[in-house]
Amino acid sequence: MKSDKWKPWALLAPSLTAVFLLLVIPVCFVVVYSFWLRAPSGGDIPAFQFGNYAKFFADFFYPSLVIRTLRVALETVVLCLVMGYIPAYFFYRTESKLKPFLMILIMLPFWISFIIRTLSWINILGDTGLINHVFIKAGVIDNPLPMLYNEGAVLMGLLQYLLPFMILNIYVSLEGIDKSLTEAAKSLGCTEWQAFKEVTLPLSLPGVSAGCLLVFVLTCGTYLPPMILGGPGNDMIANLIFKRIVGTLDWPFGSALSTILLALLGVIVYTYNRYLGINQIFKTLQ
Fold first, then answer.
1. Which of 206-241 are b and which e, b meaning 16 or more Cβ less than 10 Å from the residue's Cβ?
2. What is the mean pLDDT of the chain?
3. 3-state SS, residue 45
4. Separation CA 176–CA 141 (nearest Å)
5. Measured between alpha carbons, how far is residue 256 from residues 54, 139, 238, 244 in Å?
6. CA distances from 130 to 21, 53, 145, 155 (A)
């Protein structure tokens, strides 16, 4: 009987080992590095001090970057939710034979490199891009519209990257709803809209909240759309981390920024779990 107790752990051992080696240990290294000192010569000095964190709070530039990141993340969540619920609901209701093909189209972006997808917006939104070229040829405008290297272009890149995550989360949640509930509501006198508002929408909220949380966290951690499509004033906290670690090789301060971002997202996820429950995310996968 004692050996039976270890069977689940034996089955979980490979996964737990991979998580420990590939996730826990690297994060621990980052946290430890955040307390080190940056030597004038360019090297890193092992230490335990809070100078890197004090540097973050001493200059409002760094907290303002975090605020901008949170604002852009919220804007992305709202856009993904508004644009993602309708196709997810369509997939849930449709009986078309083209439904599998349409679902493949939703997942098609995952088959293409994220870098390629982001760079493609330059050929669409640039001064000589597709949109400006068509408008100028049609005589709608005389000079190219400034659609690139601003926050709008960053949001377009983020939307293209994260919208499939929102659609799939909502669709999985909707697919778990028994359609007979809607029919029962209609038989009791509800209109189509009332049945959706009173039955379908509340039951789909776990998928909505899971999609919102996933999109928010991924937005806060991404740096490619702001770096490629944004201008000088459109950096997010992940861009600053990238510049500090890769550009200036300032690992201690870059690690401190990463730790602060990790702690902030941890607080957000904890708050989500406190009021909604992380288990709501796993319900959408059942």
1. bbbbbbbbbbbeebbbbbbbbbbbbeeebbbbbbbb
2. 88
3. strand
4. 49
5. 10, 52, 12, 10
6. 46, 45, 11, 18
| pLDDT tens track for 221-236 | 999 999 999 988 889 9
Domain count, the chain: 1
Domain-located, residue 270: yes
Domain span at residue 249? 51-283
CA–CA dist 102, 272 (Å, integer): 32
Residues 6+ apart with CB under 8 A from 227: 235, 239, 242
pTM: 0.87
Structure-block tokens of residue 169: 């989360």
Does any domain span residue 65?
Answer: yes
- Say if 2 falls within a structural domain: no
Check if the beta carbon of residue 125 is closer than 8 Å to that of residue 113: no
Q: What CATH number does residue 179 fall under?
A: 1.10.3720.10
Tokens standing for residue 29:
């290294």
Would residue 28 count as lying in a domain? no
**Residue 255 corresponds to which amino acid?**
S
Give CA–CA dist 117/121, Å, rounded.
Answer: 7
Could you give the C-alpha distances from 229 to 56, 116, 200, 203, 254, in angstroms and in order? 26, 12, 37, 37, 23
Query: Using an 8 Å Cβ cutoff, are 194 and 185 in contact?
Result: yes
